[in-house]
Amino acid sequence: MGQQESDANLPSEVEVPMMYLIDTGRAPVFHQTDTPADEQIMEGERKKKLIKIQNARLMNNNFSLHVEGFSLAEKATSVNDFYDDSQLSTLYTPELEDLLVKVTGGSEAVVYDHTRRSTLIAHREKHNARNPVALPHSDYTDSSARQRMRDVFGDGAEEKLKKRFSIVNAWRSIAGTIEQWPLAVCDARTIDDKFMHMVERRAPHREEPSFEYARPSETQHASYDPNHRWYYFAKMKSEEVLFFKNYDTDLDGTARYALHSAFEDPSSPIDASARQSIESRAFIFYE
Length: 287
What we know:
alpha+beta, globular
């Protein structure tokens, strides 16, 4: 999975600076803006560390959501405009839910939000897209994952919380090949919880349904750990989907989450097209 005709021309790895959180003993705050196009504010001290990110396309490895915490799949979509909310609702959400059941082995998948991102300010202003996040993080803590369940399912959440569930993100290009600011994922087996720190997420309250979550919450950001092993799939195309774990209640050895971060790719061409992507989050349930 993940091989392309031009693999011989792709770098086997890139070395890039990653902005890791410095643990000061105080939880930093991430200020979510009301308008997606606005620049978001992230508190907290950061330290730049040079890390190597392996090109997963060139590796003879069937990456798995349950082992490394991420995987790549090929799946064309019937959506022709990812900025059209009606197509996300009627076409993309059911497509993705069917694919997630197959990829995860779960009994049911429920997609509950979509976030569109672009490196181009004009795109963000026109389409209310957000900028890529170039910080190693996971989207949930134990507390915020369970709260998100309650937000989505209301009175029906408590019964669902009694059983195993996971949260999986699906990330894909929505405008051709990714030529700049790709997404890196960190092997879940190399993540030590002692290097993870809660970040308070403050956001304007917006009633459901909404494609994008806008409520107070918590995320996790990483401080530097030399054991982290990072990967990316170079030149991702719009018919490919990168899945990665953000949370899992299972404590029996399956991957619970894989860190993720955008990064500035030093191998990008000077005239690289702007990165436009969509990430969707889903609850996965298991019988």
